[in-house]
């Protein structure tokens, strides 16, 4: 199989937008914005070629040289799975807001912020780890194993 590659700058841009918009939503108590970020994440998971935040990177930040490509040998599926999990959590937050349970909604939204920040700042993608664990367990749909990158010496 040919090497598969992922631009991690696009992923980091996506995470930064998620974190930023969810913090703005919290500060302004704009629950509709949580629903909008959920929609962006879920649509981007189902249709990766139109992932809004990654498109901002591809068509604005990268051409303007504000962000530089960071293309690595990687599988895109674990990152899409992680984004989908985050989108589902934000959908649940939106439902909690609709059910007049704002504390639950904000806890779920802040969980997404925390996990996106862990990935953005420490490079730890919990959703990706979940994907690879599911692969190791042989669960259907999780067909890509973790890519082992030889160390550079």
Give a verbal description of the structure:
- The chain is globular.
- The mean pLDDT is 94.
- 31% of the residues are buried.
- The chain has 153 residues and is mostly helical.
- It has one domain (5-136).
- The chain has a two-stranded antiparallel ribbon.
- It contains six helices and two strands; from the N terminus they run βαααβααα.
- It has helices spanning 8-28, 31-46, 52-61, 76-98, 102-122, 126-136, and strands at 5-7, 71-73.
List key phrases describing it:
single chain; 153 residues; mainly alpha; two-stranded antiparallel ribbon; 6 helices; 2 strands; globular
DSSP E strands, number: 2
Could you give a short account of the major beta sheet? 2 strands, antiparallel
What is the ordering of alpha helices and beta strands? EHHHEHHH
By DSSP (H or I, 4+ residues per run), the number of helices equals 6
Round the mean pLDDT to the nearest integer and report it.
94
Stretches where pLDDT is under 50 for at least 5 consecutive residues are: none
Q: Structural class per helix/strand content?
A: mainly alpha
């Amino acid at each position: 199989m040919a090497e598969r590659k992922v631009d991690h700058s696009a992923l980091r841009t996506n995470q930064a937008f998620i974190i930023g918009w969810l913090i703005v939503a919290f500060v302004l108590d704009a629950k509709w914005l949580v629903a909008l970020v959920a929609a962006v994440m879920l649509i981007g998971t189902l249709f990766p070629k139109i992932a809004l935040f990654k498109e901002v990177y591809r068509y604005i930040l990268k051409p303007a040289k504000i962000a530089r490509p960071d293309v690595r040998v990687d599988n895109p599926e674990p990152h899409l799975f992680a984004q989908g999990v985050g989108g589902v959590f934000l959908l649940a937050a939106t439902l909690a807001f609709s059910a007049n349970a704002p504390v639950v909604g904000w806890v779920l939204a802040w969980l997404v912020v925390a996990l996106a920040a862990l990935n953005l700042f420490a490079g730890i993608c919990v959703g990706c780890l979940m994907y690879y664990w599911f692969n190791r367990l042989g669960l259907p749909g999780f067909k890509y194993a973790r890519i082992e990158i030889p160390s550079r010496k």
